[in-house]
Amino acid sequence: MSGITxxxxxxxxxxxxxxxxxxxxxxxxxNPETSRKLIIGTNRPDVRLIIVRASxxxxxxxxxxxxxxxxxxxxxxxHGGEGLYQPIDLQIAKCxxxxxxxxxxxxxxxxRKGARLRVATKYLRIAREHFAAKGVHVDLIKLYGSMELxxxxxxxxxxxxxxxxxxxxxxxxxxAVEEIMPISARLIVNQAALKLKHALLQPVIEAFESAVSxxx
Length: 216
Ligand code: AMP
Prior knowledge:
By secondary structure, the chain is an alpha/beta fold. Helix content is 33%, strand content 30%. It has 2 domains: 4-93 and 184-215, Periplasmic binding protein-like II (D-Maltodextrin-Binding Protein, domain 2); 95-182, Periplasmic binding protein-like II (D-Maltodextrin-Binding Protein, domain 2, 3-Layer(aba) Sandwich). The chain has helices spanning 12-23, 57-62, 73-79, 107-112, 124-134, 167-171, 191-196, 198-215, and strands at residues 4-8, 39-41, 47-51, 68-72, 84-89, 95-102, 117-121, 138-142, 158-163, 174-183, 185-190. It is elongated. Adenosine monophosphate is lined by residues 12, 72, 93, 95, 161-168.
């Protein structure tokens, strides 16, 4: 396609990206929360949005099916980031990647004693690197959601998950014991598109950049 395709996921990312799109003069013609369409036009005939699963955003941009995308740092680290230019931390969808345990579990002592921990998470790469750097031996158990349940039913000792308000942990009698890293969403750009469509993409990237710095 000769125009610009932007890959976004529904929910937090779409909601928090809308003001940035507006700053770039881009207004979606439909709301993906209510529309079932996966390709959404905008007020600009040369700009369209595609609605993808959050963890698929880097893949669409990597292969050039989308020129731009917005993805959490968590998703980018798990994907690996190959073929992607990551020019801006958009400072949206902020949260923290944390290690959490059930209230009664003495994490600090388990780590001190060199215990082998069962860790349930969607974020295998991040978890593997975190525990390897600490010298903690772990068995990683891949889950696709509701990680908070795993330690409550004996599937794991520990979880690695995103925490925003902490309400989900509290509601499930879990406590955060370690912050692995702060997380926010990034603009990602297909490296070939950045060269071939520079004149089209650069103003959008710059509009995002100035919208972000004016809120800093
Ligand atoms: P909270 O109860 O506010 O701490 O939110 C925790 C739940 O929301 C967890 O299940 C997280 O996986 C999810 N979550 C929180 N923040 C984000 C984010 N920025 N991006 C994706 N998922 C998130």
